[in-house]
From TrEMBL:
GO biological process: CAAX-box protein maturation
Pfam families, sorted: Rce1-like (PF02517)
Superkingdom in the source lineage: Bacteria
Residues of the CAAX prenyl protease 2/Lysostaphin resistance protein A-like domain: 96-185
Protein name in UniProt: CAAX prenyl protease 2/Lysostaphin resistance protein A-like domain-containing protein
Membrane spanning residue stretches: 7-23, 29-45, 65-86, 129-145, 151-167, 174-196
InterPro entries associated with the record: Rce1/LyrA-like_dom
GO MF assignments: endopeptidase activity
Alphabetically ordered keywords of this record: Membrane, Transmembrane, Transmembrane helix
Length: 203
């Protein structure tokens, strides 16, 4: 029961406060911070090993190919989708903090909280497929705060894919690299132009 309470307190309750207007929507950036802080505190108090969190090298070689294949397919898919939709890359992308550096820590904290900690814990309680599905749903649910169906759909597909990769090949280093590359590219190809101008502009 402990893991279910943790999931409710860290991944569901803060999002619900924002969705129902109890907490101002402009505080949504703190939701992810809260999730990461909660997962970190739980991991420390439970003495979770770095290996359990996927910070390891013993499975790096065997995990490299599947992560590379998935990321490559994701890159190709994003370019094809951008071409089909007539998307043009972000002009002067280097002036936006997200495309300079922020995509790296954002990807890291998301994967640390959702996959490395919560999915791993949930997999021990329920069938792996159900754990992957639940965490992907909660992960995409966090993105509902941006009120964009496309970002919601992409987050759910990404959540399922990274969740499966994590289950089969639990390596946080490769997981974060995959997430970072696809995160950067999705923003760079201007799928969410409002996102970087609202949150990450350095101009």
């Amino acid at each position: 029961m402990k893991i279910y309470l943790q999931i409710f307190l860290v991944l569901i309750f803060p999002v619900a406060l924002l969705v129902f207007g109890i907490v101002p929507l402009n505080s949504r950036g703190y939701v992810l911070s809260f999730a990461v802080l909660g997962a970190t505190i739980f991991a420390i108090t439970e003495k979770t090993s770095l290996k359990s969190l996927g910070i390891r090298f013993d499975n790096f070689k065997m995990s490299l190919l599947p992560y590379t294949l998935f990321t490559t397919l994701g890159v190709i898919g994003l370019f094809l989708a951008a071409n089909f939709l007539g998307q043009k890359p972000v002009d002067q992308w280097w002036t936006y903090s997200h495309l300079q550096w922020a995509f790296l820590p954002i990807s890291f904290v998301q994967e640390l909280a959702y996959r490395a900690y919560f999915q791993t814990k949930l997999q021990r309680r329920v069938k792996p497929f159900l754990a992957i599905l639940v965490i992907a749903f909660l992960y995409s649910g966090m993105h509902i705060l941006w009120k964009d169906p496309l970002i919601l759909a992409m987050a759910f597909v990404g959540g399922l894919s990274w969740g499966y990769l994590w289950y089969k090949y639990p390596n946080l280093i490769l997981l974060v690299l995959s997430h970072s590359i696809l995160n950067f590219l999705a923003i760079y190809l201007n799928f969410f132009p409002w996102l970087i101008t609202e949150f990450f502009s350095l101009k």
